[in-house]
Write a structure and sequence with these properties.
Blueprint (H helix, E strand, L loop, with lengths): L5 H14 L1 H15 L16 H14 L6 H19 L24 E4 L19 E4 L2
Antiparallel strand pairs: 1-2
Length: about 140
């Protein structure tokens, strides 16, 4: 995300306005306490860009405050797997040799992006009984 962009800054301001004016005030006060200066806010009317670091903190607050429903991530993972299978089929892969396994939750390291792992195995075989070379794991950002 380009936090230096006036459009991004304005979008973040609008998203936080939905959370309430006290949230923006609290974030501005917290930012001022940490940096020793009031944050420079974006002004779309005057085409003045705000402080990118302040908008990074706005984004971080939004990410932390957004809850994800229990099976939403499972549904997202299953949907992505289906898109990959469709792409493989349309590229000419034999549909009888393609299947999707269950989506599984991954681990997120603090401060790192959430990733989704995609692994390929022989259909109908467990990873421990597969004798073919190990295929690479493709990581894809999900947020």
């Amino acid at each position: 995300m380009v936090f230096e962009s006036l459009g991004t800054q304005r979008a973040l301001e609008r998203l936080l306005a939905k959370a309430g004016s006290s949230v923006v005030r609290d974030l501005a006060a917290q930012y001022a306490k940490q940096t020793g200066a009031e944050p420079k806010r974006a002004s779309p009317l005057l085409r003045i860009h705000g402080d990118p670091d302040f908008y990074k903190s706005m984004y971080a607050w939004l990410v932390e405050s957004e809850s994800v429903a229990g099976d939403s991530m499972q549904n997202l993972g299953a949907g992505r797997a289906n898109v990959v299978l469709d792409a493989l089929r349309s590229a000419g892969a034999d549909p009888a040799r393609l299947e999707s396994g269950p989506a599984a939750a991954g681990k997120q390291q603090k401060g790192k992006r959430i990733t989704a792992e995609l692994s390929l195995e022989l259909a109908g075989k467990s990873p421990s009984t597969t004798t073919s070379p190990k295929l690479p794991v493709v990581k894809q950002a999900s947020r």
